[in-house]
Specification:
Blueprint lengths: L1 H30 L5 H22 L8 H25 L5 H8 L2 H13 L5 H18 L2 H4 L4 H22 L8 H22 L12 H28 L2 H4 L2 H17 L5 H18 L13
Helix pairs in contact: 1-4, 1-10, 1-12, 2-3, 2-9, 2-10, 3-8, 3-9, 4-12, 5-8, 5-13, 6-13
Length: about 300
């Protein structure tokens, strides 16, 4: 009975990291049409952080944290959420959600290259093939005429790439820094501090703030889904899977999320899927597969959904 229960939980957890994380691109794209991007992301992560702390207390978890741990959570909260996610939400004002998901699928490639340049880590032959394919896929993706002709779209592409650099550096930093031992509490601090920083960024950029009561019903529901499912359920599922399933199987969400995002963007937002995008996706995701097939190269960090 217990084995069946674990199997069911594992299947539900995989559904969460496949479908829920894949759908966050669509949800952010819908919400950012009505709400300023940094305000939107700030409300999402601040609310999620507070809810995580409430759940942690109800579970009897200690929220104690050292000064060093707190500073580390603030730093990675900025890298992953304030800059990483906030900038991507901003970029969704100018690029389609399916395009953003495809570009972000190259994150393992960026991490691997940053490990090479900053840590001097040797790149193995399989990973070199992955890098070549990944770069070719990215080139095909961003060189499309439909994209280049859109106003401010290239700026959106560059800002997403900058966000990927922030995630990559944060991923390397997390591997060596001191954090609270409980993943749930650690996530709560990162989301709360990252959300507060996003609020400060929102004020600095002069964004207009509004009460949730004044949002459209659609945006209200989108925000609930982003907070509860995208920020809490999916990330908890990710950490649960890491305890019971091998990391390389968990990292398969790298391939599934862009496909889910492409389908949802096409179905709900009528976003176009060009033949060049499909070819670019196949080449890019094949490159990511070659990189991830080298199990000891790195362990992907998924704080960016």
């Amino acid at each position: 009975m217990k084995a069946q229960k674990n199997t069911l939980l594992i299947l539900l957890a995989f559904f969460s990291i496949y479908v829920i994380w894949g759908s966050t691109y669509l949800l952010n794209k819908i919400a950012v049409t009505d709400l300023p991007p940094f305000f939107l992301a700030g409300v999402r992560f601040t609310t999620a952080g507070l809810l995580i702390f409430l759940i942690a207390k109800l579970m009897g978890r200690s929220l104690a944290i050292t000064k060093r741990q707190f500073l580390n959570t603030v730093f990675v909260g900025f890298l992953f959420l304030s800059f990483g996610n906030g900038v991507v939400v901003w970029a969704l004002k100018f690029v389609d959600s399916n395009f953003a998901a495809l570009e972000i699928s190259a994150q393992p490639l960026v991490i691997l290259l940053m490990m090479f340049f900053l840590q001097g880590k040797k790149i193995k032959p399989m990973s070199i093939i992955g890098i070549i394919l990944g770069m070719l896929g990215i080139y095909l993706l961003v060189s499309q005429k439909e994209l280049l002709q859109s106003e401010h779209s290239f700026v959106g592409v560059l800002m997403i790439f900058a966000a990927m650099l922030a995630w990559a550096y944060g991923s390397l930093f997390v591997g060596k820094a001191d954090f609270p031992k409980n993943y749930f509490v650690n996530t709560g601090y990162q989301m709360l501090t990252g959300g507060i920083l996003l609020g400060i960024m929102s004020l600095a950029f002069g964004e207009s703030w509004s009460s949730p009561l004044g949002w459209s019903t659609q945006v209200q529901w989108v925000m609930v889904l982003l907070v509860i499912l995208g920020s809490i359920v999916a990330f908890t599922s990710f950490n649960y899977l890491l305890k019971f399933v091998s990391p390389e199987k968990v990292s398969t969400n790298t391939y599934v999320n862009p496909i889910v995002a492409m389908f949802l963007g096409w179905y709900f937002l009528d976003e176009k899927i060009t033949l060049q995008s499909i070819v670019a996706a196949i080449i890019l995701l094949t490159g990511v597969y070659f990189i991830n097939s080298n199990k000891k190269s790195f362990r992907p960090t998924r704080f960016n959904r």
